[in-house]
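Lecture 7 notes: from sequence to structure.

We start with a single chain of 599 residues. Read the sequence below before looking at the structure.
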Amino acid sequence: MSPVTFAYYCSGHGYGHATRVSALASCLLRLPEPDRPAVYIVSSAPKHVFADSIALGARYRNGNIDPVIVQPLAYRDAILQTEMEWLGEIHADCVLSDAAFIGCLAATAVGIPSILITNFTFDSVYSYLSTTLIDAPASPTDDAHSHFNTLVPDIPVFPAELEPLVEQIHAGYRCADLLLRLPGYIPIPSFAVDPSLPSPKWVDTLTNRFHDTVFASLDDPPSSSSVYPPIEYHNVSRQKPAPRQIIPIPLLVRSPSSSVYLSAGRSQLLKSIGIPSHYHDPNTTKILIVSFGGQVFRRPSRSGSATPSRRVSRDISPIPGTPPKFNGLGHGHGTPPSSARGFMFPHLHIPPPLASPTDQDHAFTAPRLATASHLWIPGAPPASKPLTTPTAPSSFVEGPLFQTIPPTPVETESTSYDQAYFDFEDSQEFDDDLPRLLPDASWIAIVCGVSKEQWNADEGGGESDLPEGFFVAPRDVYMPNLTAVGDVLLGKLGYGTVAECVDSCTPFVYVSRPLFIEEHGLRRLLDHDGVGVELSRESYEAGDWAGAIETAWRNGRDAKSSKRKDGAVGLGLKTREEEGSTLATMIVQWAEKWGRQCT
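Now the structure, written as tokens:
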């Protein structure tokens, strides 16, 4: 038989989809002959995100394949016809899809099988946008830039507007023949009969957690789930030869280089970011990675800097050849489309009463990264800069650290820092109970996702007022390596970041986005395979990060230490490579068997 040709559809809603698609495509393309398939990737995500797999031979096509609410039926019909013709042109044998329903629909329309590879699907995501949870807007600040913050609050959408799109997406996923279910999963309602849509009924709004019955369904083995029957081929006489199936698979994740766990590799990475050499020793310096995935900002009013600040040694620039634009991934800049709604779903059309405010007098460009009183981390609300300076670390290793929060109380869910803080405050005395960004002077922070425009927001290339110990990573830094170097990561829950934290044993302090239902599966993954500590939005905005960071570090330091020892000799990388090869072989064999049964 000739090699299998895969068409791999990848949603452009977030870099997590693209990084895991590139990871699996790379595994497929590393298979030895004659098993090595041809892989075509189609996505609205930019080409450079798939660089690893393209270097191995994957072919990339940019395509607008993500769902919209405006005229959904017209969208589906036009895009479906385009994809059907394209699948014929490349002689595709099988469609792979990372949460892009149109690929599954097109595969059934032309008479080839499709495999859904994901931990969630957008029918449940969009359905959940009608829930009664409301993420309040950022707290008022006295900073001159506060009114330029454009982090749009998560406001429920009317169910009547969502239902046509949800039904359309659900029907597309029903065409998939196999579900390869990734860790961090939530219910996939197009495969398992229960729990069914709408997804708001899965969650207890008082606790913002899944109901016990939903957790129980997630714990059931796939073989015990009642699965919907297949959707037969359109306009094709033969029938699908096998029932639909759910198969759990390991993490799809970009692994760090083993060299980054060695002293020379760690120093090389930190030096490239502009970190002074006296911060390179992990025995004396702990590193916080701050990564919220990027955000579109309005240009702020200009004001002078109160104090001088340091600047990284490397100029931070966008990817060469990439024009400034709003790309729908939370990392774009420029003017977004009129239908843009925050950073979660830029193509989602919202009626005028719920739309985000517009300002024709200001371009959507980044403000300064920091002012005298606030930090402006891309993808996050503004955080206050506490006036206190981090205290020196305690002179002893074990025993209570009265400058920081104690170890996290044992809980069945991810720990809430706020509750632990107040429980401890009632029984102990603090030398300094004011908010602190970092636990003490042994910590530094590296901020990710910052554009050149944000860094040089002032005319004349003025510098930002970063707090002491804060540095900026270049936009093109390889995040798995940076995550592996970090002792704790602070950010929002997304599959790519969570998977890389789990893979590198990096504890995760996260700020929740209540209307994003995938979070429930990712929190569960952290509880089971990693360390997750929740920081409330109020504490984040107050600049009161230190306690949560210390808690996460204490809970994960032993596993992190072991991982660094294993990583130095490549043990983790070898395991991921073996898992990837096994998964790729299984996918190729499944597609070949399906093809033989259909002939």
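The first helix runs from residue 15 to 29. Keep this in mind for problem set 3.
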